[in-house]
Amino acid sequence: MVGNIVIAVANIVASLLKMFGQNHWLPFVLVFVCANSILAGEELSPTALVASPDGTKVYVACGTAGLVKVANLANGDVLASIRVSPHPTGLALSSDGHRLFVTCASPKSEICVVDLARAKVTAKFAAGHTAMSPILSPDGKTLFTCNRFNDAISLLEVATGKELRRIAVTREPVAAAITPDGRHLLVANHLPAGRADQPPLAAVVSVIDVAAGRVVKELRLRNGSGSLQDIRISPDGKYAVVTHILARFGLPTTQLDRGWMNTNAKTIIALDRLEVLNTV
């Protein structure tokens, strides 16, 4: 049994080397953390990860285990396992690397605040239904969370955990990203809203003006876009990229392989004018 697991892990690592190249360390650390836990009889279900500011460690949220694993990036060794509330879904690390904010999903979700020097939870904030994708403002004073099944974004005061505001968005927010200047929060809505038999049938990215506390624009993706998964902003702050599924339901169903009906896609957004550029 152990031999089979080791062979399976080796095959995964070989595949990742082909996919990401020799210097892309995050996938390998995730594999080794999971492999060590499998050998130890743990069930993890990794859901999110974030690297430390100095690049020496990675923190991995484990949904089934209710843990955050801390791994050494140099060799993949697990340095610590931090117990949090059940079903952790997302991680946000303070800019100084001292505190980790962990969204833990339930109908009445919690956000665990972890003191990393002590490797323990020191505070818990209340959140909405199925909280995920925590995002810190550039000044570190505000924490944004996606409350998926409330169709809303919570703005929390980091110092107190108090909810300052809740902003309604389109449908099932699952990921968010904030522009470097802190002006706009971009929210990926998982599914399209409205009827499924009337075009356009596509999910949207909600653009929130943080100071005004409201949605100022909805960026509709290409027709057939849904199941949005993540959104990230380029280091130069010029573009955002959304990952999602592109359904080709307008084509006759003559084959299913090679993405004929559904394919993975990413949509690129120009942030200077808040417009969709292209879907690839």
Give the helices and strands, then pairings.
Layout lengths: L1 H19 L5 H14 L6 E6 L5 E6 L4 E6 L5 E6 L4 E6 L5 E6 L5 E6 L4 E7 L4 E6 L5 E6 L4 E6 L5 E6 L4 E6 L5 E6 L14 E6 L4 E7 L4 E9 L5 E9 L14 E9 L4 E5 L1
Antiparallel strand pairs: 1-2, 2-3, 3-4, 5-6, 6-7, 7-8, 9-10, 10-11, 11-12, 13-14, 14-15, 15-16, 17-18, 18-19, 19-20
Helix pairs in contact: 1-2
What does this structure look like?
This protein has 280 residues and is mainly beta. The strands form five sheets. A four-stranded antiparallel sheet has the order 1-2-3-4, covered by helices on one side. The protein has a four-stranded antiparallel sheet with strand order 5-6-7-8, with no helix packed on it. A hairpin with a 4-residue loop joins strand 15 and strand 16. The N terminus is likely disordered.
Output the helix-strand order.
HHEEEEEEEEEEEEEEEEEEEE
Main sheet specs: 4 strands, antiparallel
Helical/strand content category: mainly beta
Number of strands: 20
Mean pLDDT: 88
Q: What gross morphology would you assign? A: globular
Measured between the Cα atoms of the first and last residue, the distance is: 41 Å
Fraction of helical residues = 10-25%
* Radius of gyration of CA atoms, rounded to a whole number: 20 Å
Uncertain segments are 1-23
Spatial order of the strands forming the largest sheet: 1-2-3-4
Strand fraction: over 45%
What's the helix count? 2
